[in-house]
Automatic annotation (TrEMBL):
Signal peptide: none annotated. InterPro entries: ChsH2_C, ChsH2_Znr, NA-bd_OB-fold, Thioester_dehydratase-like. Residues 73-137 form the ChsH2 C-terminal OB-fold domain. Pfam families: OB_ChsH2_C (PF01796), zf-ChsH2 (PF12172). It comes from the Archaea. This is DUF35 domain-containing protein. Residues 36-64 form the ChsH2 rubredoxin-like zinc ribbon domain.
Amino acid sequence: MSFEKINVNRDIKHWLHVIEQGYRYTAGPIGTKFLEGIKAGKLLAGKCPVCGRLLIPPKAFCQYDFAEIKELVEIAPVGIVRSYTVVYEDSYGNKLPKPVVIGFIEFPGVAGGLVHYIVNVEPGNVRVGLKVKPVFKPGNERRGSITDIVGFEPA
Ligand SMILES: [Zn+2]
């Protein structure tokens, strides 16, 4: 096994929108259940069988005691904005028609959180501590993806 070590910043490569290689990734058994939950309009957290912690997004193993996570439980769909940024330009430096807000959202009693759009609020009215709830696409447009959630709006 070998690891690529980056010593010079200009060696870092990035791709806009599409990664060149034709890799396909799976979400894994737990990630798939999480996405199926989103498709059904629910937020599901992993529940650790050892420490009982709830984790979102759920991972295959508990990050505290490495126990295997097999159970997902539905959580209340109300989160708290813990951090956010307002984006004014796209990846090419073009001014967006209107600013986009991206936030990190935590859920009370749940470890982790989700990064997602904050919608239906003026950027100037977003603040840390704002209570938000998910806005789902109509059921027939959901594909089992995190983007089945349009964003989170003030609750
Ligand atoms: Zn645990």
